[in-house]
Task: structure prediction
Amino acid sequence: MNAPVLLFSSELDDPEPWRDLFARHRPDVDFRVWPDVGNASAITHALIWNIPKGALKRMPNLRAVFALGAGVDQIICDPDSPRGVPLFRLVDAGLREQMTEYALYGVLHWHRRMGEYTAFSSKREWRRLDAVHPSQRRVAVMGLGVFGSDLVRKLSAMSFRVSGWSRTRKTIDGVDCYAGPQELPTFLSHAEILVNLLPLTDETRGILNADLFGQLPGNGALIHLGRGGHLVGQDLIAALESQRLDWAMLDVFPEEPLPSHSPLWSHPKILVTPHIAAQASNERTERQILESFQKFERGEEPLGRVDLSKGY
Amino acid sequence: MNAPVLLFSSELDDPEPWRDLFARHRPDVDFRVWPDVGNASAITHALIWNIPKGALKRMPNLRAVFALGAGVDQIICDPDSPRGVPLFRLVDAGLREQMTEYALYGVLHWHRRMGEYTAFSSKREWRRLDAVHPSQRRVAVMGLGVFGSDLVRKLSAMSFRVSGWSRTRKTIDGVDCYAGPQELPTFLSHAEILVNLLPLTDETRGILNADLFGQLPGNGALIHLGRGGHLVGQDLIAALESQRLDWAMLDVFPEEPLPSHSPLWSHPKILVTPHIAAQASNERTERQILESFQKFERGEEPLGRVDLSKGY
Result:
């Protein structure tokens, strides 16, 4: 086999630290940065957050694609994305702990009525509100992959009543697990706090819509840290106006940065965060990508292989 | 023995649900409410949040005192409090989970810079801040009793670097345990987020003062949910002004409700909550008190016996 030729492509990431990383650890790798592909048939590996549609298809000798994130829909949504080439996503790099932190923060913020207490504090108002013990509070998590399963375990350890919903049935101690579209209504009917951690696929696009909000028990909270394409923004606003929902914390949006004219900004019942629920640390990401690259070359299986038939 | 005579005394709690509880389960108990003590020498049991100083001393046949809270300093601070009569405090009644929730919320709020993100959200500002992985963040918990030991375990499970400090040395997996005054400086020197869960004793009164804040690494956070008497308010304000501390979340105060003229209110770096970190649910509290009462009568040891020599 010829020396590896790695193509880097991302609108979000600076290529230079990656060039340095490979220069340090794998000086044999020919590191190229999109759009300076050179001879496309020479490319053997791709390291990408995103790349223009159809681009990967023009690389007949591509052996593996390493994604620079945990979500890979922006790669898979290209109908010309080469189906025969293995695709690996970031599976940890510190993301799991951060995702759980963010979700727990949102759960606790609403569960403990901290928005109200913060307002009281700024008005010098000593006012106690009713408290609900976690054993009386139902938290429902959509998506039970690496992130969701970590979150439900932590919630359960904190004595919350926890349910989880996934495409295929999971079994997790202390968690009521629901599966598939037919069990979604039951799962939703008691979801006081709904956390979305689903991957974006054809089945889940736009899943957070008026129909779904209408199946919730009412007056609860939504914590949305899946993918921008899950949420129908105007349906969320309507659900908040009609008390279907009481509060929402949103980290991902169809267009990022969220445009300044979006009605999601500065809504009194919405907290917008700028896609920071899980920020891969450079160090951990670099370590994982380098390890995946080397494993793949040795014929071993790197972490995070994406099942293209499922889309995650 | 004569039929039990129970004296109820609390400035905070309504006696009527308690009268009903005993009427339902122990109709033989003569239930009296302070100040209508009747013949003080008839009183055999006391159920109190607080009672005027010296009052208990005038009840020579008192067999046991049950506290209506987890903190008992307001009872013990009476030098005439009868030392020979066993005192039991609330040990759970759902308090532990709530205390951990509150502390975790505070930890996550500062750790994940949610105050800043909330301000950005209200200004339609998409701005990402640096994140710190929990394995790089030190949380230091003062007090490793029922509450503190639950909290440090949860923090450790979330991958934080956790230290604990207590009067006598504890051993807890994944937690760096420090003990006694001689190890306090080391404990404080790396405390980025300091959580106070100490009991109030002669040794801990005023412990959150300028001297202690001066030993912190600087620019961190304080989460104070011990007792009001721990904190020297003006020292906290000075520590916040001088960047010894960056943020504080306070739930307990020497005078409650916190007077409206207090400078702690509406300080941009302080979140005041009205002593709500742990609110005993009536149902759980009633169950525990009734159980303790019956156990004590049968000669068994109820939960929560206070060691009067230590003060907690």
